[in-house]
């Protein structure tokens, strides 16, 4: 943004180039409207002290401005370093958390596998025990049934033999009997 002094100088230059004419037979001297030029110069004089004072204040305050800018820059650098340290710490914390999480998952997986292996082993032992118990019961039943069968087979065979003997005796006794024929009065043997 240009200052008012720069604007006035530009107006003077434009006035000379556009509105002023060369003096006859001269290429360096011009004819000017004194009042208009005086007015522009008066305004320039009035603005110059204000502008100069302003620039002097800026120059005087330059060190303070630079010190303030330096302090702000150092504060920004310090904040950036703190944030960087925090981010690095957060990153390290995240890495530690991931490492701990992986370790916990590994331990949990190993523990779960151990539980599954133990449960499988227990289930196999129970299954084998149940099969052995069932086999023992069936062997006992087989033995009892076998003994009973042998015992009753022997008794049955004895009963059959005894019945056969009784049958044979009854038949033999019947054969020895002679029944008289009613019509003839003679004895007839039965078969």
How does this model look, in words?
With 191 residues, this protein is mainly alpha-helical. It has one domain (2-165). It is built from three helices and four strands. The strands form two sheets. The protein has a two-stranded antiparallel ribbon with strand order 1-2. A two-stranded antiparallel sheet has the order 3-4. Strand 1 and strand 2 form a beta hairpin. Helix 1 packs antiparallel against helix 2 (34-60). It starts with a helix and ends with a strand. The model has no long low-confidence stretch (mean pLDDT 82). This is ATPase. It comes from Mediterraneibacter catenae.
Task: Considering the chains and any ligands shown, give keywords for the structure.
191 residues, mainly alpha, two-stranded antiparallel ribbon, two-stranded antiparallel sheet, 3 helices, 4 strands, 83% helix, rod-shaped, ATPase
């Amino acid at each position: 943004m240009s200052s008012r002094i720069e604007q006035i100088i530009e107006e003077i230059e434009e006035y000379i180039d556009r509105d002023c004419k060369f003096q006859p037979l001269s290429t360096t001297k011009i004819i000017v409207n004194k009042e208009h030029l005086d007015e522009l110069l008066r305004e320039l004089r009035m603005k110059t002290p204000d502008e100069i004072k302003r620039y002097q204040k800026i120059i005087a305050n330059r060190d303070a401005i630079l010190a303030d800018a330096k302090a702000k820059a150092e504060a920004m650098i310090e904040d950036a370093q703190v944030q960087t340290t925090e981010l690095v710490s957060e990153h390290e914390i995240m890495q530690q958390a991931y490492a701990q999480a992986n370790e916990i998952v590994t331990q949990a997986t190993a523990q779960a596998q151990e539980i599954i292996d133990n449960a499988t082993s227990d289930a196999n032992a129970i299954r084998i025990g149940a099969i052995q118990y069932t086999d023992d019961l069936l062997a006992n039943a087989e033995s009892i049934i076998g003994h009973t069968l042998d015992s009753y087979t022997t008794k049955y065979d004895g009963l059959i033999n005894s019945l056969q003997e009784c049958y044979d005796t009854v038949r033999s006794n019947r054969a020895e009997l002679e029944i008289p024929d009613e019509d003839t009065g003679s004895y007839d043997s039965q078969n």
